[in-house]
Amino acid sequence: MIHLSKLPNIETTIFTIMSGLANKHKAINLSQGFPNFKSDQKLIDLVSKAMNSGYNQYALMPGNMELREAIAKKFDLLYGSSYHPESEITITAGATQAIYDVITAFVRADDEVIILKPAYDCYEPSIRINGGKPVSIQLEAPNYQVDWNEVAQKMSSKTKMIIINTPHNPSGTIFSEADMLKLQELTKNSNIIVLSDEVYEHIVFDGEKHQSVCLFPDLKSRSFITASFGKTFHNTGWKTGYCCAPKELMEEFQKIHQFNVFSVNHPVQKGLADYMQDPNTYLGLSEFFQAKRDLFLNLIKDSRFQFKPSQGTYFQVLDYSKITQEYDVDYAKRLTIENGLASIPLSVFNENKLDNKVLRFCFAKTDDTLKQAADILNKI
Ligand SMILES: Cc1ncc(COP(=O)(O)O)c(C=O)c1O
Fold this sequence. Notes:
This protein is of the alpha/beta class. It has helices at 14-24, 41-52, 65-79, 94-106, 123-129, 148-154, 177-187, 217-220, 229-232, 247-260, 266-275, 280-283, 285-299, 328-339, 367-379; strands at 28-29, 89-92, 112-117, 133-138, 159-165, 193-197, 223-228, 241-244, 315-319, 341-342, 344-345, 358-362. Pyridoxal-5'-phosphate binds next to helix 4.
């Protein structure tokens, strides 16, 4: 029997490929976005405590109530924005599941979804599996600024959703207040849903402010925010995240969520709820990662790689066009195999695999690892 693939063009993700190659060649792995240091022992102890005190059965479908309350408090504290813990917040198995369920809840066959490239790689397959059509807008290196006129031109009566991501993986750029106001103006009086992927909301540098959709009332009324505890608390393997949206949107989301996963890891949720009672657990993150960015960039400032300092996330993109004109995927592989340093080539996130000779390096690593990586880059 012949099985026709629903996603015929989907290949193994570049993260799996590059991490596999890094392991095989014992290379320093700055490819996949995860820390190589432990998360806070206090958080690990709180999760263990939750397991030992009986939080081992299904959580409520939208998530542990104390965690939803802690998230609501955080939105109030950071953005002066209110999401009701009863009806406007759902805990998910990482941001990935939240993104999939938002798209599945709203995108029907032939609906168009605008995505900005380079784009995180789970958006497009989630749109396609639902019969939707990704409409891509390619952002130009090295600034990756959005041309909102182009967005306006690509919008049509078929546009169901626009996906944004600030701070932006892979480019490390952030949206300004002007960007958000433009998006708000463009979507006003429409039925377009905005999926705002804010997994790096707590990692914004140089005193800039994270521009969450929730700061813009009209935008908030049509938006989902997706978030990731893995990114915030250095434990991507726990795959716990959440999403928030106004009640009527969240009701539709939960119709998918309850049959996709129903509820997620309960002891982790309880541990996170207790841990988040202290806002310092997430407030110091920008400073922590800015020091790593600065260390890394200072070490490679005399190398042949060119860069603009990352404005947010824990990624730094480096332009290698002064070194070689090789296709970025080939160069990333060669750098791993011959030089012992793994990164992610940006073309895999671009429209038609556009190659700007740019690689992405994750600096969520110990200072020692960053120094070793810089030594390699400086010798090239
Ligand atoms: C932009 C972006 N969105 C979503 C995710 C997925 O987050 P999670 O691991 O919580 O599913 C990632 C992870 O790298 C990401 O970079």
